[in-house]
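Q: What would this chain look like folded?
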Amino acid sequence: MWRRGLAEYPVEQIRDDFPILATTMNNKPLVYLDSGASAQKPRCVVDAMSAFYLNDYANIHRGVYRLSQRATDLHDQARSKVRKFIGAKSDKEVIFVRNATEGINLVAHSFGRAFLKAGDEIILSAAEHHANIVPWQLLRDDIGVVLKVAPITERGELELNVFLDLFSDRTRLVAMTHVSNALGSIFPIADVIRLSHDRGVPVLVDGCQAVPHQPVDVVQLDADFYVFSGHKLYGPSGVGVLYGKSTWLNKMRPYQGGGDMIETVTFEKTTYAPLPAKFEAGTPDIAGAIGLGAALDYVSAVGINRIEAYEQDLLRFATEQLLSLDGLRIVGTANNKAGIVSFVLTGVHPHDVGTILDQQGIAVRAGHHCAQPVMDFFGVPATVRASFGLYTSKNDIIALVDGIRVVQEIFG
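A: My prediction, written as structure tokens:
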């Protein structure tokens, strides 16, 4: 692991902790610029999961034998690490799920069916990932809620005044992204929460693209629900987090039924376990939670404030370099952005750009980024997206710019 005390951001030492970054792709050094889709994993995360499987594996919460108790302790420690990382008040408010998508579906199912009825309204933004649109559409189709959409500007910023105009006496929930995965725009989520609470409306926040890039304190934000995925935060895939205020979680029915979420079961009636087990039916991804805990340890050691400052500098550098290219247009130019740059090239489809860059060992995302309404708003079928992680270097940006020049040469 990189050494503390270095005056400058130790990107090269950090890169050494990610073995995949030293590999080649298509006989070229790998340039990984798709961390927004899924971040690479430091060696310590893989080691923690491997050590658990090799030395400590057993099912949790159910065994009286020492090995099970040891596995349970490791899983509980991982939950505590999450609670500390996001500033939650209690471990009981940290629910392990498969990913942020499952967290949103959990709230749509359990909160929606407990507190919403036909004609009640949910406010989304025009910049949402499909995972924060489709679950609410399913709820709409099932019980008849109404979805309202707060617009964004041509720069990709939330139109806050129009958002406020969408509230009515039937508004029951706001579900909104913290950072747009397609544009990088950082929404004023603290203001969104405060203004919603002023009107008595709870807020769910999709924090997938925020938590890896900036400090997040759910208590300071006063979020009612906050979701994120482990795989975007340098942890394994298959594990994510739903934070929820206990005042809401205690009132909500379980999302799934089965082992570990019960207190007592008869054929006549079941009573449910207290939080967080109430929402964690069945055997969880134990190793995944432990791997996520190791990832949070790693990010904390680097320093989330330090990561944020470094990535902001990298974003400025990348923006300047990309705008120096003729025929390149950045899609999403908000004043407040995270480390994501989406762009289009005149006369070249984004998929062709992505394919030619791949031939040069450069991994970017090309497509609609699970945000088709955003593409429709900007009048493009897709964009090329370069997204950064704590290991991204300026050399990666230079390689991207050089690669785009090759694309332009090929297409004349």
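The chain has two domains: 11-42+303-410, 47-300.
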